[in-house]
Each structure stands twice: as structure tokens, then as C-alpha cells.
Predict the structure.
Amino acid sequence: MPQFTTIVAIHDEDMRERVMAYVSSLGSANIHIARSKNKLIQLCVDLEPDLVLTSTQLKEESMIMAFHEIHLRGIDPPILFLQEEDTLHPLPQHFSTDKFVVLKQLSTEQIEQGIRQLLPAKFHTKQLKPHYIVCKLKDHSFSIREDTILFVEKISHLYSDIVLTDSTRICTSSTLKEIFTQAKNLFQSHRSYLVNKLHIQKIVPDMLIPGNYSIVLLESAFHPPLSRRYYERFVQQTVLNNNKPT
């Protein structure tokens, strides 16, 4: 796995934690937080980082001033700019560098593509392993390797359970949508379920509800439902074409 140094200049704490966890899973051995323009300048001068991640919650004028001063000192770090939803701040327009990528979607896939674009020499494989999903629970967040997830079950409007290959259940307050947007191999099979395509053995007709199906997993006796609403999408996305129900 590639090793690189990252400075994260993101004001929102939840977003900062998610981004830090993800860049760590991609191989960033050293991650430093810059909560102000001066701290960002100091860290860039001291560390000469491989990557800087920042967002629209830092005012454009402050960012321009910070990076202008950094460039005057002979440092030109690649910058990944994350545009947060409903931001009141405009996108920066005047950076004098070609090492600059703006992301308007904050999915892990988009972040990975942006990092690959900025640091092509660091990555030689088509897919980085393992892939992590960041989840929330009350006042903290945690990361889970996606390939260890069997399925995610919505328990209530506040909580979901993440079921792992060793049958462990982990409670999270992250919504199915929040988990799904980070995923590479999870798909929605039902309004209350996400299922990992890597662990599907086959799908079979539901004996109780005509038109619905059950998903047989390799490591579990529980069969998550595949509702008719999501069936066609499943058939299009899944690589298990030999296991389609008849």
C-alpha cells in the first residue's frame, strides 16, 4: 500500500473524521490537522506534504492567501478541495497551480479518484485494498472493512445493525444511505437492508411473498430479503449471473 503524508484543513468535525479515516485506509501514514490559515501554512512549510485536503467551510480569501504564501516559500502541494453541500462559500477560482482537484460529491469513490489523480505515482493498482466504511455511534465514529460486512439491517429510524462475516453485530447511528454512499460492494436489496455482493451464494424465490426473493449468503443462515422494487437493479449490478432465479 502506498505511503503519503496528508494535511486536513476541514472545519466540520464529523466530515474531518470521515476523511481522515478514509485517507488513512488508502495509505496516508501521517495525517495532520490544520484548524487555521496560519497552522496550514506552518504545517505545509514544516512537512512539505504529499496532499492537502480542505473544504468550502474555509473562506476562499483565507485559502488563497494561505496557498499564495506557501507557494512563495517554494512549496506546491497537491490540493483536494471538497465542496460541502449547501455551502455559502464559492469555489476557489484563482489558485496558480495545476495540482488542484475540486470534488462536488463527497463519496469515498470520488475522494479516492481525486487522490489518484493528484498522486498518480503513489498508486499502481486499479483498486486499493482493503476498503473501509466510516460509521457513527453517538459521539464517536469508527471504521469497518467493507469486505467483512455481510449485510446491514435497519433496526429503527435511529439505528442499524452491521452484521459481519464472524456473526458479530455492530450498532450504528449511520443511515443506510450514509453507508451506501461509501460502499463499493454493498447494494440495497430492500428498504431496510444493504447486502454485500461479495458474500452472495445465490438468490431464491420467497416462498411467502410472490415476486420477492431471499438472498442466500455464504457465511450466514439468515437470508436477507430482495424485494421486487430492487430486483431489476440487482440483476443489472450483480456479477452472479449464473445464480439468477428462474
